[in-house]
Amino acid sequence: PLSLSLCSSPSPMRAPLLAAAGAAMGGTGGPLARTIRAKLTAALQPSHLEVRDDSPRHGGPPGAETHFGVLVVSGLFAGLSPLQRHRLVHEALRAELAGPLHALQVTARTPEQWQSDPRNPPAPPCLGGSKKEKRRG
After folding, report:
1. Does 5 fall in a domain?
2. pTM score, two decimals?
3. By its UniProt entry, which PANTHER family does this protein fall under (predicted)?
């Protein structure tokens, strides 16, 4: 899956790549992707933000926006534990997590962490099924 990156100030070399990625995805994603991006930008003032729609990998109907991954790089995360950072992301997306958003993978880093390792972990594999189904094992 292609992930679209929005940087507050993309380098001159990255700007064309970001524009190409956006065009390849047909703009900035669907309505939920745009809402996620807007709410995280407003709440966390990220220096780097990637919103990845993993929904097609999870067998929903075409156009469903239910599974996302986000990479948020924010100075607001300085001094916070990973759990506290995730809570900030979840708080910003509380309404979406209560409704249409079924699954959210969060990577939350400080600018210093991002600078030392600018990689986004891959999406976890889809295990299929439902929480209500019994798994064989």
Report:
1. no
2. 0.72
3. BOLA TRANSCRIPTION REGULATOR (PTHR46229), BOLA-LIKE PROTEIN 1 (PTHR46229:SF2)
Q: Give the ranges where the chain is alpha helix by DSSP (H).
A: 14-24, 31-44, 82-92, 94-98, 111-116
Domain limits at 91? 47-58+79-118
The structural domain count of the chain equals 1
Q: What local confidence, expressed as pLDDT, does residue 127 receive?
A: 66
What number of H helices and E strands is found in the chain? 5, 4
pLDDT given for residue 62 in this prediction: 74
Distance, in Å, from the CA atom of 104 to the CA atom of 38, rounded to the nearest integer, reads 16
Dihedral pair phi/psi, residue 91, rounded to 5°: -65, -40
List of the chain residues with pLDDT < 50: 1-27, 131-133, 135, 137
Question: CA 27, CA 39: separation in Å to the nearest integer?
Answer: 18
The pLDDT tens digits of the residues spanning 22-38 come to: 333 444 689 999 999 99
CA 39 to CA 55: how far, in whole Å? 19
Tell me the three state secondary structure of residue 3. Answer: coil
In a domain, 107, yes or no: yes
- Domain membership of residue 20 (yes or no) is no
